[in-house]
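Dear Dr. H.,

I hope your travels went smoothly. While you were away I took the liberty of generating a structure for the chain from your last submission, since the lab meeting agenda had it listed for discussion. I wanted you to have the full record in hand beforehand rather than looking at slides cold. The sequence, exactly as received, is reproduced here:
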Amino acid sequence: MAKKIMFQGTSSNVGKSILCTALCRIFYRMGYKTVPFKAQNMALNSYVTKWGDEIGRAQVAQAEAAGIDPIVQMNPVLLKPTGNQSSQVVLMGKPVGVYSAKEYHTQYSLTALDKVKESLVFLDENFEMIVIEGAGSPAEVNLKANDIVNMRIAKMTQAPVFLIADIDRGGAIASIVGTLELLEPEERDLIKGIVINKFRGDIKLLEPALTFIEEKTGKKVVGVIPAIENLDIDEEDSVALENKRNKGSKEIQIAVIQTPKISNFTDFDALNYEPDVSVRFVGNGDVIGTPDLIILPGSKNTLADLTYLKNSGLADEIKALAAKGTPVIGICGGNQMLGTAIYDPHHMEGDIEESEGLGLVNSTTTMKDQKTTHQVTFDVDNLQFLNGQFSGSELVGYEIHMGDTTPNDESVKRCFTITKRSESAIEVVDGFIDGQHQVMGTYIHGVFDNDDFRRFIVNQLRLRKGLEEMPVVFHYFEHKNNAYNRLADIVEEHLDMDYIMSLLKDNG
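The corresponding predicted structure, in token form, is as follows:
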């Protein structure tokens, strides 16, 4: 039986995912076979396991920190908002339908609880340490009856719970006291400590507040974690996207179009880590300007986001820039938008059955009633982009899409050959590039995580500006591993790990 520890928050975006990631790496370095767990996620940033199961991105980062492959039992329930107060429900990695918020909370959540229990049993039997993450706040009285992610899980596992508050946003002390006050006595007893997160300034000025918290609540403050700049760790919460609206002024400027239903925005993190690249997310009311490259990202609702582009004027702006020679790359839903038309005969995305695309590539997309979810390995053979050519083998990424896209004429060339899907050998072509070699689309998420390919794209942009090419100087996967260690070092220094480990002695 595994030892268990749980982190809950006074609200969303207080740092639960990041602290769980830190603890996964800390326990991994201690020698424990560690696994993360979050019963239910709501996020558009998702990932696919080796076995083709879709789970939340945060648990993937936590799994990487724990030194293991992601598995579906880490996140048995994933809610992907589709609009109109509805979400696609992904149960054990597979979509089971679209439910309104009311339908899910009153009719389905407790049904999903059976799979949550099965997942916990599996993890309990196969790991030594389970790091459990809550969602939002455990004190949302309107949601508690059907909650399957906070105190119900704490009571089920009898895990010691640590309550996290974000002191950087203000009101942290009140949120701690208020949260504890709204819990039932049995729930309150499970909370074994308080963590103050994102602290800036002199700790001595905070000490009276720490004393007050302990005296008022009877709970030990087990750590004050400093605000950590440039974490460089994948996040899934849409709130985190606001932190990515970088307006840097490096040599290469890339504009990512931030649509209302943008998904998998971590696809572009590796680009932004390059020393010569600035990535700017262009949202409602922003001007695209004159970037060196425009990227259309993935979308949970391609047709709705395409309508948004047209109504906002961004579609016309993108087409005008492309006509002047600005390169455009589309990923997944963005790839679908690049074509001439999108059809949705099964109403998978709503009431829109047909929509005219941007017309930058002569291709059409038809939405299907089955979702494609795979980790993939792919080869590239003499891909022509701008004035350069790229070849490479054994590149990696993943697919999450519900449509098929086909070229309409011979001027549209294919980009990639997928050689493996979910550990099975296969040969499938993917991606498109127009006859001018400046508009490219693919279904493969994470394509820019491949160092050589990413540098090839950036170098082509450099050459267009009269700049010299640069060698590969940034290694994405190595960078992520170093980021996990840096995070763990900081958190371990500022948490009372002796106290935490003493609680875990009798747990599991």
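Two observations you may find useful: The chain has 15 helices and 25 strands. The two ends are 5 Å apart (CA to CA).

With kind regards,
E. W.
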